[in-house]
Amino acid sequence: MTAEHSEVTRRTHGRPRSPHSLRLLTLAVASLAAGHAQAYLDPGSGSMLLQVILGGFAAAGVAIKLYWHRIKAAMGLGRKAEAEDDSSPSE
Q1: Would you call 50 helix, strand, or coil by DSSP?
Q2: What pLDDT sits at residue 52?
Q3: How far is CA 36 from CA 11, 30, 31, 44, in A?
Q4: Which residue among 26, 31, 70, 73 has its CA within the 20 to 30 Å range from the CA of 17?
Q5: For the chain, what are the domain ranges?
Q6: Model-level pTM greater than 0.70?
Q7: Hey, how many other C-beta atoms are within 10 angstroms of the C-beta on 78?
Q8: CA separation (Å) from 91 to 42, 88?
């Protein structure tokens, strides 16, 4: 054994560096080895998918509405901008 090989073994303890990489590799190989699926998607599945997407947009809209003041404050468009508009002389 060379000194370089023993350093690598000492660093990794003889195992792969990350268990996640081994799981990812196993998943990739398993998905490539999968055969042709004899599956059928009925029209109700497409309708359900459309409802999920539209529900996500609705939820995002409600979340933006609830947190709109915080979003404006984070962007620097809070009450200071409104106060500057009110303090300008009007004709």
Answers
A1: helix
A2: 96
A3: 42, 13, 11, 23
A4: 31
A5: 3-27+44-87
A6: no
A7: 14
A8: 66, 10
